[in-house]
Amino acid sequence: MKSRQPTPVDLTATSPYGTFFGVSQACFDQVWQTLTGPKGQSVTYVSMEIGADRDVYHPIKNLLQEMGKQYKLPPDLSPLANKFLHGPEKIPTYSGGLGILAGDTLKSFADCKIPVAAISLLYRHGYFSQLVDMNLGQVAWRREWEPEAVPGLYPLHQPGNPDQPLTVTVDFHDQQDQPIQAVAQVWLKMEIGSGLDFFVPEILLDYDIPASPEWIRKSSHQLYDSSSEASKAIQRRLLGAGVLPVMRTLGLTSDSIHLNEQHGVVLVLALISEILHRRLGDDFRRLADDREIMAAAEEAARHVVYTIHTPVKAGHDRFPRSLYHGLEHSFFRRILQLLAEDEQNPEAYNFTALAMRVNRATNSVSRLHREVTRTQFPQFKERISAITNGVHHLTWISENKAQVYDSAPELAGWRHDPSVFRQADKLLKSTRFRQAFATAWQADSKYLIDHVNAMLAEHRQQRISTWIDPPNYLSYLDEKESRLDYRTFTFGFARRFSTYKRADLVFEDLDHLARILVDQQWPINFIYAGKAHPADEPGQGLIKTIIDIQEELYQRTDGLARLVFIPDYDMAVAKMMVAGCHAWLNSPKRPLEASGTSGMKAAMNGVPNVSIMDGWWVEGYHEGQTGWKFGYEGPVNPELLSEQRAEMLYSEDAASFYETLPDILATFYQEPEPAAYLDRGLMNLALNCPIFNTHRMAAEYVARYGLDLPQDIAEQMAKFRSLYRSDLE
């Protein structure tokens, strides 16, 4: 049943911890009572990063803009409303796919009314901002943002004392087991469902306060601080060790804790300690033997659900044992020696191994990734299953496409139930829908290309006014010569620049690529974006390679091929690209891409994928109906997990791409119209949109959580699960 449209008086709620804007008091109380109820029928979701910028999805802002046409907001609401309408929209506490997936997941939990509270860290310096210089490549600089100014982000206060911030204390220990207290201020961000009648609280721990030691504060500043092994280890511990204290402080009673990757896994040390304390009393550290520790670990495991996201070595946390002599109590180190053994390096703790051992359910993020993970961790093979990722359809579908979907009776209700996209195949023969969809796609393409042309013009001016040499060759040409045309076939490529993703693959043989384009006089745009971690020098080298290729590609193709790099990639750039390009390019080395979600976002907009058969695309390809495949697609074996350049299959997979490219371009440039190309876009709606969304993904996780949900919600979750079984053998 459709929720009643709120009025201004429904938009505030108070609790002992503060006043919140965007939901009614009744909604807030209902959600909070479930999260703190004695039955533990909720979930705590732990993630190192959560991406949910408000410039790509903003139901409260939309509501307020509508209300402004109907109501005069009461004076007491005006400051809060103005903050949502005009306040900052960036929340830079994410680096890329993992964090954006976390944000999408929480949005779907809120939409589907699943009782979840998330816990993460608040990074005062966020993730780095990116400048890109023609000669220097990527230049990282510190992002400045003010959490206090961001709408929907609230510093909590002590109950009964609004002037006293709510804090939690986490104990570190020196080499003599003496406690060192780290103190975090507690913030709350509300992820409000599209129906505006449910929310998921995101609890963010801010350790950058005077009560914490300076070395703790410094390590908490920036997401994925890798200035030293110690900083990385401290940051992981600030997350994991903070989970139970903040749950106890707020009264959260979740019986299930979901680890989104292993970053917060040290929370299991606290779980094991609590269990032993309950069984053995205050002297449990001295009394517990190894057998009792392992029995407590088995009990702790019943509370943990674990999602592993990557097969890439750099994605698994390993830390020298010696490092923990100044961080963890000796009893915790004893637990780590039992449960975090690294078979390849006996002098290190392996946190992925710890997460693998202490959980009741482990899942990969695609079917192929399940096989890779079983290959990497054969000792846990029987417990490793698959839940393929999805994306939040309401976030990533463009406004132009959304209006077209709204106009089709066959897609009625798609906003709250993405399974209705199964009806989209009925629209293949609808001239009216096809024309409307093609017009919307063209509008999205124009929006993207207009943005790129404006950026190039701005960069042309920067050459005069700043020290930055623009990162695009086209900015060094005159404006008429450099302009991109939105009707030209455009590849989009945007993701983290890591070597295994092979951003430069399709430019491996420029002579071959140029011949294809020049022989047929096919114009083409390549639009790239993405960041490399500041410590990832090979990834930064890939960005420089893309920049260095631009002029040669342009010259060899007589201007037919134009390669552009958009600096400072974020969610807004991503949304513009996945909707406005004509094909989404994905070129990782199989099988190193665990899932990938950017291609799913393109599919939501009816944009075909052109991809290696890796990650989710193995499930989303559908025999060419939704896009194209290229490259190696043989069996998974341990040798293929190598990330050495000589073993990255560049020449083989590039040659396969060049074989595929003529068919793609001939289909797009087909006269009098690209009907077959449009068919692929529409089949994405019918075959991929009902499946690769976070509503379906959330439903699969709900089954793992074992929640006792109200009947209507349970039935909706069962319906989403019936659409697809990720774990199908």
Kindly describe this structure.
Its EC number is 2.4.1.1. It comes from Desulfurivibrio alkaliphilus (strain DSM 19089 / UNIQEM U267 / AHT2). Its cofactor is pyridoxal 5'-phosphate. With 729 residues, the protein is of the alpha/beta class. The protein has two domains: 8-386, Glycogen Phosphorylase B (Rossmann fold, 3-Layer(aba) Sandwich), CATH 3.40.50; 393-693, 3-Layer(aba) Sandwich (Rossmann fold). Helices cover 40% and strands 16% of the residues. The protein has 26 helices and 24 strands. Strands 3, 4, 7, 10, 11, 12, 13, 14, 17 and 18 form a ten-stranded mixed β-sheet that branches. It has a six-stranded parallel β-sheet with strand order 21-20-19-22-23-24, sandwiched between helices. Strands 1-2 form a two-stranded antiparallel sheet. Strand 23 (609-612), helix 22 and strand 24 (627-630) form a beta-alpha-beta unit. Helix 8 (267-280) crosses helix 10 and helix 15 runs antiparallel to helix 16 (431-465). The two termini are 36 Å apart.
Describe the oligomeric state of these chains in a short phrase: single chain
Instruction: Please report the first level of CATH classification, the CATH class of the largest domain.
Output: Alpha Beta
How many strand elements?
A: 24
Mean pLDDT: 94
CATH homolog superfamily of the largest domain: Glycogen Phosphorylase B
Count of folded domains: 2
CATH topology of the largest domain: Rossmann fold
Classify the secondary structure makeup into a structural class. alpha/beta
For the report, how would you describe the main beta sheet?
A: 10 strands, mixed
Given as residue ranges, the uncertain stretches (5+ residues, pLDDT < 50) are: none
- What would you say the CATH architecture of the largest domain is? 3-Layer(aba) Sandwich
Cα Rg: 26 Å
